[in-house]
Design a protein that fits this description.
The chain has 279 residues and is mostly helical. It is built from 10 helices and 3 strands, in the order ααααααββααβαα. The longest helix has 44 residues.
Length: 279
């Protein structure tokens, strides 16, 4: 028995909690990094407020930055795989075709590997930026006396910006791997001769972006999908409404749309969504 739209909505909300888990992991890591760097700086201050950074101190700071995990994000592979499996669970409720589900599970490793490699590359680039910013702050303080509060504010700003950007990358990667699995299932449904839609599920609240608002809770045809563009060079099929999008695209059959009396998106909905896209 296929799930109802409300049951698929509950599954989508479970995905939100999974993403919150990834956010919490990264936030704790960056907060710990900031604290350890400031402890090292306090231990290296001279009476005139300059820093006496020895080679050992410099190496200690560099090691802290490395241990913060900017270069390796292997623990997120588990979250990505969990996210992909959750996507198959949604497909199981929405489609129920054992052959398509088996093929979707078989494609999980490939989807996770591709997404993980891209995530690690982007986070590594982000990490290089914060390393350079913090090292520059330390180097200036070895020559020019700097108030400790000012240094702390600058380091907090650098790590805060990095945290915001990294959380966006992780959130987007988790959503992307799910959509990758769902897109493969959709392709297999089409190959099997099914008329296919995507059910666009997720929250409809004051945070819902203008692009997503006219689409939430509706079945979108393949032709309509091709006309949707969330902007910034992103692809609707892989990225939904864009970075940090909280919505899920679940492939469903025409018979599911009819049986659940789900509203189909109209051309005016597609036009309204595109007008609300970020450029």
């Amino acid at each position: 028995m296929s799930a109802t739209p409300s049951e698929l909505e509950l599954l989508a909300r479970r995905n939100d909690r999974m993403m919150d888990k990834a956010v919490a992991i990264y936030r704790r890591r960056l907060q710990g990094l900031q604290q350890r760097i400031m402890e090292e700086i306090r231990a290296s201050r001279l009476p005139d407020s300059r820093l006496a950074i020895s080679l050992n101190s410099y190496q200690a700071i560099e090691q802290m930055l490395a241990r913060a995990g900017f270069s390796t994000f292997y623990e997120f592979n588990d979250l990505l795989e969990e996210s992909a499996l959750e996507s198959v669970s949604q497909l199981s409720d929405a489609i129920g075709d054992p052959d398509i589900l088996a093929a979707s599970r078989a494609g999980i490793t490939e989807a996770v590997t591709a997404t993980s490699n891209d995530l690690q590359r982007q986070v590594r680039e982000l990490g290089n930026g914060i390393v350079n910013a913090i090292k520059a702050e330390v180097e200036v303080a070895t020559v020019i006396p700097r108030p400790l509060a000012g240094m702390a504010a600058n380091i907090s700003s650098a790590t805060g910006l990095a945290q915001s950007r990294a959380l966006t990358l992780v959130n987007t990667a988790l959503a992307s791997v799910q959509r990758n699995v769902q897109a493969r299932a959709m392709d297999r449904l089409v190959a099997a001769g099914q008329e296919v839609y995507v059910y666009y599920t997720g929250p409809l609240d004051d945070k819902t972006r203008p692009f997503c608002r006219p689409l939430v809770g509706k079945a979108i045809s393949r032709d309509q999908m091709a006309k949707l563009s969330p902007g910034r060079g992103l692809n609707f099929r892989q990225n939904g409404g864009g970075y940090n999008c909280r919505h899920t695209l679940i492939p469903v059959t025409a018979s599911w749309v009819t049986a659940t009396d789900t509203e189909k998106a109209k051309q005016k909905d597609i036009a309204q969504a595109n007008r609300g896209a970020k450029r």
